[in-house]
Design brief:
Layout (H helix, E strand, L loop, with lengths): L5 H20 L6 H5 L4 H10 L3 H4 L20 H13 L2 E5 L6 H12 L7 E5 L9 H9 L9 H9 L4 E6 L5 H14 L3 E7 L9 E4 L5 H15 L7 H13 L4 H9 L6 H15 L9 H14 L3 H10 L6 E2 H8 L6 H13 L4 E5 L4 E4 L2 H13 L3 H22 L5 H10 L1 H14 L2
Parallel strand pairs: 1-4, 1-5, 2-3, 3-4
Antiparallel strand pairs: 6-8, 7-8
Helix pairs in contact: 1-3, 1-19, 5-6, 7-8, 8-9, 10-11, 10-12, 11-13, 12-14, 13-14, 15-17, 15-18, 16-17, 16-19, 19-20, 19-21
The chain binds adenosine-5'-diphosphate (ADP) and magnesium ion.
Magnesium ion binds next to α6.
Length: 449
Protein backbone atom coordinates (compact mmCIF):
# COMPACT_ATOMS: atom_id res chain seq x y z
CA UNK A 1 0.00 0.00 0.00
CA UNK A 2 1.42 3.38 -0.89
CA UNK A 3 -0.97 6.23 -0.33
CA UNK A 4 1.64 8.88 0.38
CA UNK A 5 2.63 11.43 -2.20
CA UNK A 6 5.79 11.18 -4.26
CA UNK A 7 7.71 13.57 -1.99
CA UNK A 8 6.95 11.28 0.85
CA UNK A 9 8.04 8.13 -0.91
CA UNK A 10 11.28 9.86 -1.82
CA UNK A 11 11.64 10.66 1.81
CA UNK A 12 10.99 7.06 2.78
CA UNK A 13 13.72 5.99 0.39
CA UNK A 14 15.96 8.40 2.26
CA UNK A 15 14.94 6.70 5.44
CA UNK A 16 15.79 3.29 4.11
CA UNK A 17 19.14 4.59 2.96
CA UNK A 18 19.69 6.23 6.27
CA UNK A 19 19.05 3.04 8.15
CA UNK A 20 22.32 1.83 6.67
CA UNK A 21 23.99 5.16 7.27
CA UNK A 22 22.83 5.23 10.84
CA UNK A 23 25.41 2.66 11.75
CA UNK A 24 28.15 4.80 10.30
CA UNK A 25 26.98 8.04 11.71
CA UNK A 26 26.46 6.72 15.19
CA UNK A 27 30.23 6.43 15.34
CA UNK A 28 30.69 10.16 14.76
CA UNK A 29 31.50 12.41 17.56
CA UNK A 30 28.52 14.70 17.53
CA UNK A 31 29.26 17.88 19.30
CA UNK A 32 27.78 21.32 18.83
CA UNK A 33 30.59 22.66 16.67
CA UNK A 34 30.91 19.62 14.50
CA UNK A 35 27.38 19.45 13.29
CA UNK A 36 26.18 23.01 13.19
CA UNK A 37 27.55 23.66 9.76
CA UNK A 38 25.99 20.66 8.09
CA UNK A 39 22.35 20.63 8.99
CA UNK A 40 20.30 18.47 6.75
CA UNK A 41 17.08 16.72 7.19
CA UNK A 42 18.82 13.45 6.59
CA UNK A 43 21.18 14.04 9.40
CA UNK A 44 18.41 15.28 11.54
CA UNK A 45 16.15 12.31 11.03
CA UNK A 46 19.14 10.09 11.33
CA UNK A 47 19.78 11.51 14.72
CA UNK A 48 16.17 10.84 15.58
CA UNK A 49 16.66 7.26 14.58
CA UNK A 50 19.98 6.88 16.31
CA UNK A 51 18.45 8.51 19.36
CA UNK A 52 20.93 11.33 19.46
CA UNK A 53 19.43 14.45 20.89
CA UNK A 54 19.49 17.60 18.82
CA UNK A 55 19.04 19.57 21.98
CA UNK A 56 22.42 18.30 23.01
CA UNK A 57 23.85 19.08 19.61
CA UNK A 58 22.61 22.66 19.69
CA UNK A 59 24.20 23.98 22.84
CA UNK A 60 21.65 24.76 25.49
CA UNK A 61 23.69 26.92 27.80
CA UNK A 62 23.69 25.95 31.41
CA UNK A 63 20.35 24.11 31.33
CA UNK A 64 20.01 22.30 34.64
CA UNK A 65 16.71 20.56 34.22
CA UNK A 66 14.03 19.82 31.68
CA UNK A 67 11.06 19.55 34.02
CA UNK A 68 7.94 20.32 31.99
CA UNK A 69 6.04 23.43 33.07
CA UNK A 70 2.69 22.88 34.75
CA UNK A 71 -0.27 24.97 33.69
CA UNK A 72 -2.59 24.13 36.56
CA UNK A 73 -2.22 24.69 40.29
CA UNK A 74 -0.83 22.01 42.58
CA UNK A 75 -3.10 21.29 45.52
CA UNK A 76 -2.42 19.79 48.95
CA UNK A 77 0.15 17.02 49.44
CA UNK A 78 2.34 19.12 51.75
CA UNK A 79 3.17 16.12 53.93
CA UNK A 80 3.80 13.83 50.97
CA UNK A 81 6.12 16.31 49.28
CA UNK A 82 8.11 16.79 52.51
CA UNK A 83 8.33 13.04 53.09
CA UNK A 84 9.45 12.40 49.56
CA UNK A 85 12.06 15.16 49.62
CA UNK A 86 13.55 13.29 52.50
CA UNK A 87 13.09 9.86 50.96
CA UNK A 88 14.80 10.91 47.73
CA UNK A 89 17.69 12.33 49.77
CA UNK A 90 18.06 9.13 51.77
CA UNK A 91 17.45 6.49 49.14
CA UNK A 92 18.81 6.61 45.62
CA UNK A 93 15.95 4.75 43.98
CA UNK A 94 12.38 5.62 44.87
CA UNK A 95 9.32 4.52 42.89
CA UNK A 96 5.95 6.19 43.29
CA UNK A 97 3.21 3.65 42.68
CA UNK A 98 -0.55 3.83 42.40
CA UNK A 99 -3.46 3.63 39.97
CA UNK A 100 -3.53 5.76 36.83
CA UNK A 101 -4.64 9.31 37.55
CA UNK A 102 -3.82 9.19 41.27
CA UNK A 103 -1.22 11.91 40.87
CA UNK A 104 2.12 10.08 40.60
CA UNK A 105 3.58 12.22 37.84
CA UNK A 106 2.42 15.46 39.35
CA UNK A 107 3.83 14.56 42.74
CA UNK A 108 7.14 13.43 41.23
CA UNK A 109 7.43 16.73 39.38
CA UNK A 110 6.62 18.71 42.49
CA UNK A 111 9.31 16.90 44.46
CA UNK A 112 11.82 17.13 41.61
CA UNK A 113 11.27 20.87 41.38
CA UNK A 114 12.03 21.24 45.08
CA UNK A 115 15.31 19.36 44.96
CA UNK A 116 16.84 20.74 41.74
CA UNK A 117 19.47 22.64 43.70
CA UNK A 118 20.80 19.47 45.28
CA UNK A 119 22.10 18.07 42.01
CA UNK A 120 25.07 19.74 40.39
CA UNK A 121 24.28 18.08 37.06
CA UNK A 122 20.58 18.70 37.20
CA UNK A 123 17.27 16.93 37.32
CA UNK A 124 16.10 15.22 34.15
CA UNK A 125 12.61 14.12 33.31
CA UNK A 126 12.33 11.10 31.03
CA UNK A 127 8.86 10.39 29.73
CA UNK A 128 8.71 6.67 28.99
CA UNK A 129 5.08 6.37 27.89
CA UNK A 130 6.01 6.72 24.20
CA UNK A 131 8.64 3.98 24.45
CA UNK A 132 6.95 0.82 23.24
CA UNK A 133 10.08 -1.31 23.03
CA UNK A 134 11.84 -2.16 26.33
CA UNK A 135 15.11 -2.24 24.40
CA UNK A 136 14.79 1.49 23.86
CA UNK A 137 14.44 2.55 27.49
CA UNK A 138 18.15 3.17 27.94
CA UNK A 139 18.29 4.94 24.57
CA UNK A 140 15.53 7.30 25.68
CA UNK A 141 17.43 8.23 28.83
CA UNK A 142 20.62 8.72 26.81
CA UNK A 143 18.74 10.95 24.45
CA UNK A 144 17.36 13.17 27.19
CA UNK A 145 20.82 13.48 28.69
CA UNK A 146 22.26 14.21 25.27
CA UNK A 147 24.52 11.18 24.87
CA UNK A 148 24.87 9.43 21.58
CA UNK A 149 24.85 5.72 21.02
CA UNK A 150 28.17 4.20 20.08
CA UNK A 151 28.61 1.72 17.30
CA UNK A 152 28.78 -1.87 18.50
CA UNK A 153 28.28 -1.01 22.14
CA UNK A 154 25.10 -1.39 24.18
CA UNK A 155 23.67 2.02 24.90
CA UNK A 156 23.35 1.12 28.56
CA UNK A 157 27.13 0.74 28.80
CA UNK A 158 27.67 4.16 27.21
CA UNK A 159 25.07 5.65 29.49
CA UNK A 160 26.64 4.17 32.62
CA UNK A 161 30.03 5.47 31.63
CA UNK A 162 28.75 9.02 31.21
CA UNK A 163 26.41 9.00 34.16
CA UNK A 164 29.00 7.49 36.48
CA UNK A 165 30.54 10.89 37.25
CA UNK A 166 27.33 12.88 37.44
CA UNK A 167 25.45 14.24 40.39
CA UNK A 168 21.95 13.97 39.03
CA UNK A 169 18.34 12.97 39.63
CA UNK A 170 16.55 11.15 36.84
CA UNK A 171 12.77 11.15 36.96
CA UNK A 172 11.57 8.11 35.02
CA UNK A 173 7.91 8.66 34.33
CA UNK A 174 5.36 6.02 33.33
CA UNK A 175 7.47 2.90 33.71
CA UNK A 176 4.60 0.42 34.04
CA UNK A 177 4.76 -1.03 30.54
CA UNK A 178 8.54 -1.49 30.63
CA UNK A 179 9.17 -2.38 34.29
CA UNK A 180 11.79 -5.05 33.64
CA UNK A 181 13.89 -2.78 31.43
CA UNK A 182 13.55 0.07 33.93
CA UNK A 183 14.67 -2.15 36.79
CA UNK A 184 17.74 -3.28 34.85
CA UNK A 185 18.53 0.28 33.88
CA UNK A 186 18.13 1.48 37.45
CA UNK A 187 20.39 -1.21 38.84
CA UNK A 188 23.08 -0.49 36.27
CA UNK A 189 22.95 3.26 36.82
CA UNK A 190 23.06 2.95 40.58
CA UNK A 191 26.11 0.78 40.29
CA UNK A 192 27.77 3.08 37.77
CA UNK A 193 28.36 5.89 40.23
CA UNK A 194 27.31 7.20 43.60
CA UNK A 195 25.85 10.48 42.33
CA UNK A 196 22.91 9.13 40.37
CA UNK A 197 19.48 9.20 42.00
CA UNK A 198 16.25 7.88 40.52
CA UNK A 199 12.66 8.80 41.11
CA UNK A 200 10.31 6.61 39.08
CA UNK A 201 6.55 6.55 38.64
CA UNK A 202 4.77 3.34 37.77
CA UNK A 203 1.50 1.59 38.41
CA UNK A 204 3.54 -1.40 39.60
CA UNK A 205 6.80 -1.48 41.55
CA UNK A 206 9.79 -2.02 39.28
CA UNK A 207 11.15 -4.68 41.63
CA UNK A 208 14.72 -3.56 41.14
CA UNK A 209 17.28 -4.06 43.88
CA UNK A 210 17.62 -1.09 46.19
CA UNK A 211 14.18 0.21 45.20
CA UNK A 212 12.00 1.84 47.83
CA UNK A 213 8.37 1.90 46.73
CA UNK A 214 6.14 4.68 47.90
CA UNK A 215 2.42 4.30 47.34
CA UNK A 216 0.76 7.57 46.38
CA UNK A 217 -2.27 7.98 48.61
CA UNK A 218 -5.58 9.57 47.67
CA UNK A 219 -5.87 13.29 48.11
CA UNK A 220 -7.29 13.98 51.57
CA UNK A 221 -10.82 15.30 51.67
CA UNK A 222 -9.79 18.89 52.19
CA UNK A 223 -7.40 18.91 49.22
CA UNK A 224 -9.91 16.97 47.09
CA UNK A 225 -12.57 19.61 47.64
CA UNK A 226 -10.09 22.39 46.96
CA UNK A 227 -9.00 20.69 43.75
CA UNK A 228 -12.62 20.29 42.65
CA UNK A 229 -13.45 23.93 43.37
CA UNK A 230 -10.32 25.23 41.63
CA UNK A 231 -10.91 23.20 38.50
CA UNK A 232 -14.62 23.98 38.53
CA UNK A 233 -13.63 27.65 38.73
CA UNK A 234 -11.69 27.23 35.49
CA UNK A 235 -14.68 25.62 33.85
CA UNK A 236 -17.08 28.24 35.17
CA UNK A 237 -15.33 31.43 36.20
CA UNK A 238 -16.68 32.82 39.44
CA UNK A 239 -17.87 29.42 40.68
CA UNK A 240 -18.31 29.81 44.44
CA UNK A 241 -20.21 26.93 46.01
CA UNK A 242 -22.61 27.44 48.90
CA UNK A 243 -21.99 25.36 52.05
CA UNK A 244 -24.61 22.86 50.85
CA UNK A 245 -22.94 22.58 47.47
CA UNK A 246 -19.57 22.18 49.17
CA UNK A 247 -21.01 19.22 51.08
CA UNK A 248 -22.17 17.70 47.79
CA UNK A 249 -18.70 18.27 46.33
CA UNK A 250 -17.11 16.55 49.33
CA UNK A 251 -19.42 13.62 48.69
CA UNK A 252 -18.45 13.48 44.99
CA UNK A 253 -14.77 13.52 45.92
CA UNK A 254 -15.29 10.70 48.43
CA UNK A 255 -17.12 8.72 45.76
CA UNK A 256 -14.15 9.31 43.48
CA UNK A 257 -11.73 8.05 46.14
CA UNK A 258 -9.81 11.33 46.12
CA UNK A 259 -8.29 10.43 42.73
CA UNK A 260 -7.14 13.75 41.23
CA UNK A 261 -7.85 12.84 37.61
CA UNK A 262 -11.37 11.64 38.44
CA UNK A 263 -11.97 14.83 40.42
CA UNK A 264 -10.75 17.01 37.56
CA UNK A 265 -13.01 15.24 35.08
CA UNK A 266 -16.02 15.65 37.34
CA UNK A 267 -15.21 19.29 38.17
CA UNK A 268 -14.99 20.19 34.49
CA UNK A 269 -18.66 19.27 34.23
CA UNK A 270 -19.65 22.14 36.50
CA UNK A 271 -19.74 24.30 33.41
CA UNK A 272 -23.07 22.74 32.46
CA UNK A 273 -24.15 20.57 35.41
CA UNK A 274 -24.98 21.46 38.98
CA UNK A 275 -22.84 19.51 41.49
CA UNK A 276 -25.90 17.59 42.70
CA UNK A 277 -26.53 16.37 39.16
CA UNK A 278 -22.92 15.32 38.83
CA UNK A 279 -23.26 13.41 42.10
CA UNK A 280 -26.43 11.66 40.90
CA UNK A 281 -24.90 10.76 37.53
CA UNK A 282 -21.81 9.33 39.21
CA UNK A 283 -23.96 7.35 41.59
CA UNK A 284 -25.77 5.74 38.68
CA UNK A 285 -22.47 4.89 37.10
CA UNK A 286 -21.09 3.28 40.24
CA UNK A 287 -24.29 1.36 40.83
CA UNK A 288 -23.74 -0.22 37.43
CA UNK A 289 -20.22 -1.16 38.47
CA UNK A 290 -21.17 -2.70 41.77
CA UNK A 291 -24.32 -4.43 40.60
CA UNK A 292 -26.57 -2.05 42.52
CA UNK A 293 -24.80 -2.13 45.87
CA UNK A 294 -22.79 0.69 47.35
CA UNK A 295 -19.78 -1.46 48.04
CA UNK A 296 -16.49 0.27 47.47
CA UNK A 297 -14.73 -0.48 44.20
CA UNK A 298 -10.94 -0.56 43.84
CA UNK A 299 -9.31 2.73 42.90
CA UNK A 300 -8.45 1.48 39.44
CA UNK A 301 -12.12 0.74 38.79
CA UNK A 302 -13.17 4.10 40.18
CA UNK A 303 -10.83 5.76 37.75
CA UNK A 304 -11.96 3.65 34.80
CA UNK A 305 -15.57 4.42 35.63
CA UNK A 306 -14.92 8.13 35.73
CA UNK A 307 -13.03 8.13 32.43
CA UNK A 308 -15.77 6.05 30.86
CA UNK A 309 -18.38 8.42 32.29
CA UNK A 310 -16.62 11.48 30.88
CA UNK A 311 -16.27 9.85 27.49
CA UNK A 312 -19.89 8.81 27.49
CA UNK A 313 -21.01 12.36 28.13
CA UNK A 314 -19.16 13.69 25.11
CA UNK A 315 -20.96 14.56 21.91
CA UNK A 316 -20.29 12.25 19.00
CA UNK A 317 -17.88 14.60 17.30
CA UNK A 318 -15.94 15.22 20.50
CA UNK A 319 -15.58 11.48 20.96
CA UNK A 320 -14.37 11.09 17.41
CA UNK A 321 -11.72 13.74 17.94
CA UNK A 322 -10.58 12.35 21.29
CA UNK A 323 -10.25 8.87 19.80
CA UNK A 324 -8.19 10.17 16.92
CA UNK A 325 -5.96 12.27 19.15
CA UNK A 326 -4.82 9.06 20.83
CA UNK A 327 -2.44 8.40 17.92
CA UNK A 328 -0.13 11.19 19.08
CA UNK A 329 2.44 9.78 21.44
CA UNK A 330 4.28 12.95 22.43
CA UNK A 331 1.71 15.73 22.47
CA UNK A 332 0.58 17.75 19.47
CA UNK A 333 0.07 21.20 18.03
CA UNK A 334 -3.25 22.51 16.77
CA UNK A 335 -1.94 22.24 13.23
CA UNK A 336 -1.13 18.56 13.75
CA UNK A 337 -4.52 17.87 15.31
CA UNK A 338 -6.27 19.60 12.41
CA UNK A 339 -4.45 17.63 9.79
CA UNK A 340 -4.37 14.25 11.44
CA UNK A 341 -7.87 14.29 12.87
CA UNK A 342 -9.88 16.04 10.20
CA UNK A 343 -11.53 13.37 8.13
CA UNK A 344 -15.16 12.56 7.78
CA UNK A 345 -17.16 13.77 9.69
CA UNK A 346 -14.77 16.43 11.06
CA UNK A 347 -13.29 19.26 9.07
CA UNK A 348 -10.29 21.31 10.21
CA UNK A 349 -12.38 24.23 11.49
CA UNK A 350 -14.43 21.87 13.56
CA UNK A 351 -11.27 20.34 15.08
CA UNK A 352 -10.28 23.68 16.59
CA UNK A 353 -13.66 24.12 18.18
CA UNK A 354 -13.84 20.55 19.45
CA UNK A 355 -10.31 20.64 20.79
CA UNK A 356 -11.20 23.66 22.90
CA UNK A 357 -14.18 21.77 24.24
CA UNK A 358 -12.06 18.75 25.14
CA UNK A 359 -9.66 21.06 26.99
CA UNK A 360 -12.62 22.51 28.86
CA UNK A 361 -13.65 19.02 29.83
CA UNK A 362 -10.17 18.20 31.13
CA UNK A 363 -9.77 15.40 28.61
CA UNK A 364 -7.00 17.24 26.78
CA UNK A 365 -4.20 19.08 28.60
CA UNK A 366 -2.52 22.29 27.53
CA UNK A 367 1.21 21.56 27.73
CA UNK A 368 2.71 24.71 26.39
CA UNK A 369 1.29 28.01 25.38
CA UNK A 370 3.42 30.86 24.10
CA UNK A 371 3.77 33.14 21.13
CA UNK A 372 5.53 30.43 19.17
CA UNK A 373 3.27 27.50 19.67
CA UNK A 374 0.38 26.04 21.62
CA UNK A 375 0.89 22.45 22.49
CA UNK A 376 -1.56 19.92 23.82
CA UNK A 377 -1.44 16.38 25.12
CA UNK A 378 -3.49 13.57 26.57
CA UNK A 379 -2.73 12.13 29.98
CA UNK A 380 -1.59 8.56 29.49
CA UNK A 381 -4.68 7.14 31.23
CA UNK A 382 -6.94 9.01 28.83
CA UNK A 383 -4.78 8.22 25.82
CA UNK A 384 -4.88 4.49 26.43
CA UNK A 385 -8.64 4.59 26.90
CA UNK A 386 -9.13 6.63 23.71
CA UNK A 387 -6.79 4.34 21.80
CA UNK A 388 -8.97 1.39 22.70
CA UNK A 389 -12.06 3.25 21.47
CA UNK A 390 -10.24 4.16 18.24
CA UNK A 391 -9.53 0.49 17.57
CA UNK A 392 -13.13 -0.43 18.27
CA UNK A 393 -14.33 2.28 15.92
CA UNK A 394 -12.21 0.71 13.17
CA UNK A 395 -10.43 4.02 12.58
CA UNK A 396 -6.98 3.20 13.88
CA UNK A 397 -5.33 2.46 10.57
CA UNK A 398 -6.64 5.46 8.68
CA UNK A 399 -5.77 7.79 11.54
CA UNK A 400 -2.26 6.40 11.96
CA UNK A 401 -1.80 6.77 8.26
CA UNK A 402 -2.69 10.46 8.36
CA UNK A 403 -0.42 10.78 11.40
CA UNK A 404 2.49 9.29 9.46
CA UNK A 405 1.77 11.45 6.42
CA UNK A 406 1.70 14.57 8.56
CA UNK A 407 5.08 13.88 10.14
CA UNK A 408 6.70 12.93 6.87
CA UNK A 409 5.44 16.20 5.41
CA UNK A 410 6.71 18.08 8.46
CA UNK A 411 10.18 16.63 8.01
CA UNK A 412 10.08 17.58 4.32
CA UNK A 413 9.05 21.11 5.18
CA UNK A 414 11.86 21.33 7.68
CA UNK A 415 14.57 20.29 5.25
CA UNK A 416 15.06 23.52 3.30
CA UNK A 417 14.72 25.57 6.46
CA UNK A 418 17.37 23.86 8.50
CA UNK A 419 20.34 25.63 7.01
CA UNK A 420 18.66 29.03 7.15
CA UNK A 421 18.03 31.62 9.80
CA UNK A 422 15.09 29.67 11.15
CA UNK A 423 17.12 26.48 11.37
CA UNK A 424 17.41 26.40 15.16
CA UNK A 425 13.64 26.90 15.58
CA UNK A 426 12.97 24.08 13.13
CA UNK A 427 15.41 21.82 14.88
CA UNK A 428 13.76 22.54 18.18
CA UNK A 429 10.43 21.72 16.61
CA UNK A 430 11.69 18.40 15.24
CA UNK A 431 13.12 17.67 18.63
CA UNK A 432 9.73 18.26 20.26
CA UNK A 433 8.17 15.94 17.72
CA UNK A 434 10.81 13.27 18.13
CA UNK A 435 8.52 10.61 19.56
CA UNK A 436 5.88 11.10 16.92
CA UNK A 437 8.40 11.23 14.09
CA UNK A 438 9.75 7.95 15.30
CA UNK A 439 6.29 6.43 15.73
CA UNK A 440 5.42 7.55 12.20
CA UNK A 441 8.57 6.02 10.72
CA UNK A 442 8.02 2.79 12.60
CA UNK A 443 4.45 2.60 11.43
CA UNK A 444 5.44 3.23 7.81
CA UNK A 445 8.08 0.61 8.13
CA UNK A 446 5.76 -1.95 9.70
CA UNK A 447 2.99 -1.45 7.19
CA UNK A 448 5.27 -1.12 4.18
CA UNK A 449 3.51 2.12 3.21
N1 LIG B 1 -1.85 17.44 44.00
C1 LIG B 1 -2.41 17.80 42.86
N2 LIG B 1 -2.87 19.06 42.67
C2 LIG B 1 -3.44 19.41 41.52
N3 LIG B 1 -3.63 18.60 40.47
C3 LIG B 1 -3.20 17.33 40.59
C4 LIG B 1 -2.57 16.86 41.78
N4 LIG B 1 -2.25 15.56 41.60
C5 LIG B 1 -2.65 15.25 40.36
N5 LIG B 1 -3.22 16.30 39.75
C6 LIG B 1 -3.79 16.32 38.39
O1 LIG B 1 -4.53 15.11 38.20
C7 LIG B 1 -4.28 14.57 36.90
C8 LIG B 1 -3.67 13.18 37.04
O2 LIG B 1 -2.44 13.29 37.69
P1 LIG B 1 -1.13 12.51 37.19
O3 LIG B 1 -0.01 12.98 38.03
O4 LIG B 1 -1.00 12.63 35.73
O5 LIG B 1 -1.53 11.01 37.57
P2 LIG B 1 -0.72 9.67 37.30
O6 LIG B 1 0.67 10.05 36.94
O7 LIG B 1 -0.81 8.93 38.58
O8 LIG B 1 -1.46 8.98 36.19
C9 LIG B 1 -3.39 15.56 36.19
O9 LIG B 1 -4.19 16.45 35.43
C10 LIG B 1 -2.70 16.30 37.33
O10 LIG B 1 -2.31 17.60 36.97
MG1 LIG C 1 1.69 9.62 35.12
Amino acid sequence: MCILGSGASRYICHVAEMRGLARVISGWRLNGKGVRGCFSIRLCVLCQMADVSWTAVCDDGGMRSNLPPQFTSFVGREREVAELEEAVGGCRFVTLTGAGGCGKTRLALQVAEKVVERYADGVWFVELAPVADPERVAAMVARVLGFREEEGRPVLATLCEHVGDLETLLVLDNCEHVVGACARLAEALLEAGPGTHLLATSREPLSGSGEATWRVPSLDSDASVRLFIERAGQARPGFAPTPDETAVIADICRRLDGIPLAIELAAARVRIMHPSRIAAALDDRFRLLTGGGRTAVPRQQTLEASVWWSYDLLHNEERTLLRRLSVFVGGFTLEAAEQVCSADPLDAYRVLDLLARLVDKSLVQVRRSDAEEDRYGLLETIRLYAQQRLLEAGEAEATRHRHAAFFVALAERAEPELAGARGPAWLARLEREHNDLRAALEWLDATGS
